[in-house]
Amino acid sequence: MYYSVPYIDKSIAQTSKLYIRKIMEKHAGTYSCVALISGNIEKVDVTLKVSRDISFDDAPNEQYPNMNSDGPIMCKVSGQPNPDVFWKYKGVRLAGDRYKQDLYGLRIQNITEADNGLYECCAEVESKGEVHCREINVLVRVPPQIVYFEDQEGIASQEYALTCNATGSPVPKYEFIKDVEGQVMFSTARIQVDRDGGQVNFRPLIAEDRGTYKCHAFNDAGESVATAVLTVVVPPRIYAVRNVTQTEGLRTTLVCLTYGDPDPVMTYRRSGLTRTHTTQNNAQEGGRINLTRPGVGELDLTIDPLRWDDSSNYTCKARNKGGYHAWNGSIIVYYVPKFSPDMPDAVFNWAGKARNLTCLYYAEPKPVVEWYRLGRLLQNNETFRIHLMDRNSNLQVTIRQVDEYYIYGTYYCRVRNNIGTSEKAIEMKRAYLPGPPSQATVIQSTPTSIELSITSPPPQSLYGLRLLGFWVQCENRILEFLTSDVTNLIFTIVIRPMSTSSSSLFSSSSSSFLIEYLRPSNTYDILVRARTEMGLGDILRITGKTLDISAPYPIILNSDPRSKFPYEYTVTWMRPETGGLAIREYQFRIREVTVIADTFELDTPIGEWRRRIKPTDISFPSMYYRIQGLNQNTYYQLEVLALNDVGWSLPNPEFIFKTNFG
């Protein structure tokens, strides 16, 4: 301050000097020098002008006016002489009614985010030719606006994020308050509050988290508040199914208890059945079965009256939009023992054989099973053996010849529990060897074979025993045909006596069997007998005659019509009917053809027949032939003929094959 005070120096005679050591703007003005000269007062005025460079006194480079305000954008400028101030935006000088300047800066009417950008505050002293500009980056602050905070729904026991989204600049922060008037929420071990992302993460969500939440979004420009209801869906959980035990004919109720929110839809399903019991179809079987909902979370299945076959597992099922749960319960019905309709009424037996009398029953509670014959309770001995298993009891009866006078007759299976007693009679009948087949007929002959159709003896001639097959004798050769198909009573047998064996046995894997070679033009006596477990039955005698020698029968082809190769095809055929003489050679005729719509049915021949001859070994006649030199992806018609000493066979039935792509 001392150095800024002006002072006068008069140390030199007739001289007066005014010194201002540190000149300031306040020193500007008119100064008068007054002196007394020759008795006269003289005065001289001197004007002092002070010049100062342009200075930006309050013009921050980053400024954040609030949305919809008038600013200002601060730019306070000083200088001497006073500078003129003007503004630029994106390089263009501002003008218009929206823009107002004052001593503190620029005011923009109803400023918005569209006004964001780089501004220049420029100060000019024209007399000095001096201009300075200050760049100011403007970012309008926008108050938060919550755009999403709606009623939400989550499932208990799962992770869930309660989300609040808000717009604003700068990016808003968030606070959450539960039950509106509660305290601000903070993170815990189970709940994480994301104040930056606007989420409350429940890990996991529990039923107690349901309620009304307030989202508070805020930034430097303002705040926004919204409320939403969080609904917590609790998946159903069955916590009890009260199993019941009751006597047949009475009333019982199976109770299923569950919890869940919303209240689950509940049903019952009986084990092994597809039908579901619901409250919509609760009156079933004439009202005998009913479902009721006596309260929230409870479903009662009432059966009145109970039947013995109501004993079962019943699955209680509960479902809501949160999930599904099931729990098995059981109804146990006590009832008088009952016998299965599958239980046989009679069993056939014979001396030297052990057979089971089977008693199939149902009973609850577990019964005592006893066997009686002629009023006497049977015990285990060398004749009787009792085997008790689950829901059945077998009485094994071993018959000796000395027992036959009394052993056949009626046996009783008696089953009793504390509810009652039931008894079932089973007959043990004497078995005999089967009668002869009902019929045996020659249905076809060739020069070397005879084909038979054999019909089983009538059921009464089998004496309750299963037909095992047939025994056939032709000359001194014996064949047996066995079958596991007890319902098939007609069998086709092809007989071609073999020269190397006098007996052959054939299983049920085929309905025909062969004995090679019969003589042409001969009549044969054929003996046929039925076989059961007890043995061979009576003989049925028939005759059969082979045909005269002839040319071979038409060849039967059995190869795949689709060749695996592009330029060749291997044809195979069944064992040929020779006509009674050995086949000496085969003839193959092929020609290109077209087919109907990519089938294997002949449409039009497009080539000439090409013939090939193949001799064959008389002892081992061929059953295949490889045809070469064919075109790829081409359809061919094939005929195969066989030659013996009588002549050529007729061609095989129409056969088309196709070669593969090359």
UniProtKB/TrEMBL annotation:
Matches recorded under Gene3D superfamilies: Immunoglobulins (2.60.40.10)
Membrane topology listed for this record: Single-pass membrane protein
Record-level GO BP terms: cell adhesion
Predominant place of localization: membrane
Compartments where located: Membrane
GO cellular component, one term: plasma membrane
Domain Ig-like: 73-137, 144-231, 236-320, 337-427
Pfam families: I-set, Ig_3
Database matches in CDD domains: FN3, Ig
Keyword presence, Transmembrane helix: yes
Annotated ranges, domain Fibronectin type-III: 551-662
Presence of keyword Glycoprotein: yes
Name used for this protein in its record: Uncharacterized protein
